Amino acid sequence: MAFQKDFLWGSASAAYQIEGAANIDGKGPSIWDIYSNIPGNTFKNTTGEVAIDFYHKFEEDIALMKEMGLKAYRFSVSWPRVLPKGKGEVNAKGIEFYHKVIDTLIDNGIEPILTVYHWDLPQALQDEYAGWESREIIKDFTNYCILLYKEYGDKVKHWVTLNEQNIFTTLGYLLALHPPKVMDFQRFINVNHIANLANAAAIKEFRKYVPNGLVGPSFAYSPIYAKSEHPEDVLAMENAVELQNYLWMDVYANGEYSPLHINLLKKIGINLDLRDEDIELLKDSRPDFMGVNYYQSTTVTTRERKQDEEEKLTNTVQSEAKNLPTDKLFVNCKNAHAKYTDWGWTIDPIGLQVSIRRITSRYNLPILITENGLGAYDTLEENGEIHDEYRINYLKEHVEAIKSAIEDGAEVLGYCTWSFQDLFSWLNGYAKRYGFVYVDRDEESEKELKRYKKDSFYWYKNVIESNGEKI
Ligand code: BGP
């Protein structure tokens, strides 16, 4: 059997995208509460203020997870819900909420996978010292982690530190699509380096407080292909692999930057503020697994060889950043052989097999797929059914890809689809749905937030029951 007996068939979510209750029970504001309330920042100015109200409906949702037979549920803790100012006074009601979620999951036979940081930084820390741009955050982030380790460490085995560090730094500081909406390559690299240090410090503390647990980051991995066999495209691919994949994963797995990264950055005029004490901190912070969020593959070419036009989409918010310093080394382009979603993301299941193999080959770490799924428009029929065979096909092909990768020799601990319930999408409102459970709301109205099981719900139930034999 390809899938190990205790394979974690799961689903994932993030606090800001599901909880709602933005100002309830002592929660402080996060950067996303503030950012999404500024007109123009999100699609149709949608926010997660109510989201799908998991804060009040978690028991109903977990009952559905149990009915499906879900083995694991990945969720994140909202930092400002437990520490309204990011540090100092603890909000007991926030702490208690996550105890209730974790206990309810465990009582229903579902293993909690806890993400420490899924982008909702306390606004207080942004105001005080510009959040991730200051080394001050390393101490505050570590203290926040220790608080969670002490509270939940004896109940939760699998922990994720930073969700998609590569995405929140790129979108926040390079493409100006997330808070604090900056477009500056040097600041992006500075922030990213500080996030690396915070991640390493959090993992070091984890070993003391949760000695029997397993911890790792979740990386948004996209395998990179060359547009053609032309050697210039191949070199562009090599550049992109270094600066879009290994720049992060080498630091996670090996605790150091490779000379290639430092020099490639120098070549484009970017300096890495790597101090002696940083080298020390990054050492010995190897994770137990590499968390992988996989949605799509990326194809690159050179600036000179690029032919296709940038696509303008009306159903999302797109970056206006132009002329990135990395354009000298590679530029993204279309993949002529791939299918695309309605939001322009490639559909490439083989890319997942390639991802798992490349990561295994370079790092020899077990892999936990922490996100994978299809964002699509769904139709709620009059009889309450949702026929989402496109989602079933997508997930089926990706499960097959994981199976093949395991047969090729990789170790995969589990598979968390994105997502269990439909939820708030950062830049796409509520129309881009990912769930097995349809949540009846849209951008204009929260309606009653009623839950309906989609066809994919029954499909995944079967997959879990047969441990991946019946897909
Ligand atoms: C990942 C994030 C998730 C989720 C997902 C889907 O990058 O970790 O939080 O949002 O992507 O993205 P989107 O909602 O933009 O379709």
Give the helix/strand class: alpha/beta
Number of domains: 1
Average pLDDT metric = 97
The major pleated sheet works out as:
8 strands, parallel, barrel
The parts where pLDDT drops under 50 for at least 5 residues are none
Order of helices and strands: EHHHEHHEHHEHHEEHHHEEEEEHEHEEEH
Strand arrangement across the biggest beta sheet: 1-2-3-4-5-7-12-13
CATH superfamily: Glycosidases
Helix fraction bin: 25-40%
Q: CATH first level: which class?
A: Alpha Beta
Number of helices: 15
Strand element count? 15
CATH overall fold name: TIM Barrel
Proportion of beta-strand residues: 5-15%
Bound heterogens, unique? 6-O-phosphono-beta-D-galactopyranose
CATH arch. level architecture: Alpha-Beta Barrel
Broad shape: globular
Q: CA-to-CA gap between the ends?
A: 14 Å
Radius of gyration: 21 Å
Q: What does this 3D model show about the protein?
A:
The longest helix has 25 residues, at 185-209. The radius of gyration is 21 Å and the shape is globular. Helix 14 (389-408) links the parallel strand 12 and strand 13. It has a single domain, classed as TIM Barrel. Helices cover 40% and strands 14% of the residues. The protein has an eight-stranded parallel β-barrel, surrounded by six helices. It has 471 residues and is an alpha/beta fold. Helix 7 packs parallel to helix 9 (185-209), helix 8 (165-173) packs antiparallel against helix 9 (185-209) and helix 13 runs parallel beside helix 14. It contains 15 helices and 15 strands. 6-O-phosphono-beta-D-galactopyranose binds at residues 14, 17, 163-164, 167, 220, 293, 371, 375, 418, 425-428, 432.
